Amino acid sequence: MTSGQTVLRRVAQLAKANTNALIDQAEDPQLAARATSARAQNRMMDAVRSVDVLDPTSELGRFEDEVRREEARAKGKEEPAASSLDAQFESPDALGDGAEIDARLARIKTGAA
Predict the structure, then answer these.
(1) Average pLDDT for residues 88-112, to the nearest whole number?
(2) Nearest to 18 by CA among 2, 46, 37, 1
(3) What are 12-24's pLDDT values in tens digits?
(4) What one-character-per-residue DSSP string does 35-91 give?
(5) Could you read off the pLDDT of 53-96 as tens digits, one per residue?
């Protein structure tokens, strides 16, 4: 028996006991029974929904989604870092040909900028 079946069985037992107690106390047993039945149906549906939460495959799916989001965040942070101004100046090759740099430096030194 799975934990989901145990939950459903326990909800059904509580609903039956609660129904019997209310019918004994009610002036209109049919109305009390309908009210209790509606409450029990709501509880049963809540229990059925909670069984899905206990399903290990759904937990695994949520964990996988969380890992994918984290990977996407990390990749998203890499992209701006790679294109930042600091990254461009880290390597002299990123500025262009070394001969061009030397020529510019020579013009600056002679004042012919």
Answers:
(1) 73
(2) 37
(3) 887 777 777 766 6
(4) HHHHHHHHHHHHHHHHHHHH-HHHHHHHHHHHHHHHHHHHHHHHHHHHTSHHHHHSS
(5) 556 666 777 788 899 999 998 888 877 766 666 666 666 555 55
User: What's the confidence (pLDDT) of residue 70?
Assistant: 92
- Using CA atoms, how far apart are residues 23 and 42, in angstroms rounded to an integer? 19
Count CB neighbours of 11 within 10 A: 18
Cβ atoms of 46 and 56 closer than 8 Å: no
Question: CA-CA distances (angstroms) from residue 57 to 31, 52, 54?
Answer: 42, 9, 9
What is the distance between the alpha carbons of residues 113 and 23, in angstroms, rounded to a whole number?
A: 100
Is 4 within 8 Å of 57 (Cβ atoms)? Answer: no
- Residue ranges covered by each domain of the chain: 1-54, 57-113
- Condensed to tens digits (0 to 9), the pLDDT of residues 22-46 reads 666 666 777 777 888 888 898 888 8
